[in-house]
Write a structure and sequence with these properties.
- The protein is an alpha/beta fold.
- It contains 10 helices and 5 strands.
- It is globular, with a radius of gyration of 22 Å.
């Protein structure tokens, strides 16, 4: 799946740094123009959504690029309009909101795991395109990404999570269920694309068997989706420190609680 060509760490890191520099320019443009942007990340479990979002946001301001990863709905939220809790996080002018999973839960995990009724599922399948048309009509730029992996790669990543104590928290009972229901999730994905891959809100597929290729390709595509200019920045000069009130201000560590210096 995707590009099989090897990508060296040096090339990857150089390209990532360059793209993240462009994201900073895009951030300035979004603020300058008051743009409103929603980015939806969906895909297979272990497809690399979290890593992708981290690379998209780690060099920009969290006040501009906000990540929304909602937990299971509360009892109160279950009684609300289904999309209501997502709408509460929509961007104001000058913001990019990234949904780490989204209202498409209903067409994926909720369908496969039986967390919604057949009637609720069909109703939302019909509702989603109109909902997204409303989003676009509200001058919000909506970009939807589906990260796709092969069965073998997903299994390898799951097994890596089991072995690596830094990653075990990523492996939830729902992940195990998704592993066992591969084809059910495939069918849900296919039906979702059939109903919601529309001209006003298309799905962009990111082949994600290679995390490095997926990250660089997705970030490059994202930057291409929002025309932006490199705004001229005012030069910053530190000037001279004032010596008013000058005194011997070196901290006396013997009189304070100091973190043990083990390194």
């Amino acid at each position: 799946m995707g590009n099989k060509k090897k990508l060296s760490n040096d090339v990857y890191e150089d390209e990532l740094a360059r793209l993240q520099g462009e994201l900073v320019k895009l951030q300035d443009w979004v603020k300058h123009k008051g743009l409103k942007v929603i980015v939806v990340f969906e895909g297979r479990d272990a497809a690399g959504k979290g890593g992708m979002i981290k690379r998209m946001t780690e060099r920009v301001s969290p006040r501009v690029f906000r990540v929304v990863a909602l937990p299971s709905p509360t009892e109160r939220e279950k009684t609300q309009m289904y999309v209501q809790r997502y709408i509460n996080h929509f961007p104001a002018a000058g913001e990019v909101v990234i949904f780490d999973r989204s209202w498409y839960n209903r067409l994926g995990v909720e369908r496969v795991m039986g967390f919604c009724t057949r009637e609720e599922y069909v109703r939302f399948l019909q509702f989603a395109p109109a909902f997204e048309q409303t989003i676009v009509n509200s001058d919000i730029i909506l970009i939807k990404y589906w990260l796709d992996t092969s069965m073998d790669v997903q299994e390898k990543r799951f097994r890596d999570r089991i072995k690596d104590p830094r990653k075990t928290w990523k492996l939830s009972p729902m992940d195990v269920a998704s592993y066992n229901k591969w084809y059910a999730y495939s069918a849900a994905r296919d039906d979702m694309f059939l109903a919601t891959d529309r001209d006003h809100s298309p799905w962009y597929i990111v082949p994600a068997d290679s995390k490095k290729h997926a990250r660089l390709n997705c970030l490059t595509h994202f930057l291409s989706m929002i025309p932006y200019e490199d705004l001229e920045q005012e030069e910053v000069e530190l000037g001279d420190r004032s010596e008013e009130g000058k005194y011997d201000d070196e901290l006396d560590l013997t009189a304070r609680h100091v973190v043990p210096q083990k390194y």
